[in-house]
Amino acid sequence: MIYLADTANIEELKKLFYYFPIAGVTTNPTIISQSNRRLSEILPDIIEIIGDKMLHVQMISDMAVDMVREAKAYKAKYSLGDNYFAKIPVSKEGFKAMPMLKDAGINVTATAIFTQQQALVAARAGADWVAPYVNRLDNISSHGIEVVKHIVENIEHFKLNTKVLAASFKTVDQVHRVSMVGSHAATISFEIIEMLRSHPMTDMSLDWFKRDAADLYDIEF
Question: Could you report the per-residue pLDDT of 58-85, keeping only the tens digit for each?
Fold first, then answer.
């Protein structure tokens, strides 16, 4: 499973790209609003940080033709290549837009997915990635991990050229469990990424190594 950063906070992204094997960045209107900056201001900064890593940008248009126009406009304005993915909701207009975008040479991430069937329809419509929302399903007494598992099984069973990008996490355990059911990727907040890469026993081990190495490691470098 690969990891993406679900944030538009530039300082967080700089920290993550310094040490963590981040495969890309996902954004949506809520994340952009938390940055207190306009999309036109923040996208250039994100693009500079990520280089050729994946960039998933949410479309906000209601109609399919406008979603396509919007996706094309972002791609042209920022000279984006194959690492650019237009995030399209699994609505009637979204499903209509997906094959139109693929015909236009634009990658598609189907978003706001809450059922296995929504993901399967999006895959049939040409989506490169499908993004089920794990924690939001758990919050309504559904089973987010199970939905991800069923989506992965469908993709493998029908041999579809689509991958699962699990989203919406509140705990490290949720990330762990989607990896165990075969999710191809997870997009995670800065806070959760920081928690999943650390452990108090790791910190203690490093302290022990430092103590035991005193006066023993005498080779200059």
Answer: 999 999 999 999 999 999 999 999 999 9
What's the pLDDT at 213?
85
Q: Which of 14, 75, 77, 87 is catalytic?
A: 87
DSSP letters spanning 81-150: -TTEEEEEESSHHHHHHHHHHHHTT-EEEEEEE-SHHHHHHHHHTT-SEEEEBHHHHHHTT--HHHHHHH
Helix (H, G, I), strand (E, B) or coil at 187: strand
Closest CA to 12 of 2, 26, 160, 1: 26
Residue matched to tokens 């015909």: 103
Nearest CA to 5 out of 174, 187, 137 is that of 187
Give the 3-state secondary structure of residue 46: helix
Residue 142, pLDDT > 90, answer no
Separation in Å, CA 46 to CA 83, 84, 90, 189: 13, 12, 26, 15
b/e per residue 89-106 (b: at least 16 CB within 10 A): bbeebbbbbbebbeeeeb
Q: What's the pLDDT score for residue 112?
A: 95
pTM for this one?
Answer: 0.93
| pLDDT category of residue 147 using cuts at 50, 70 and 90 | very high
Known catalytic membership, residue 149: no
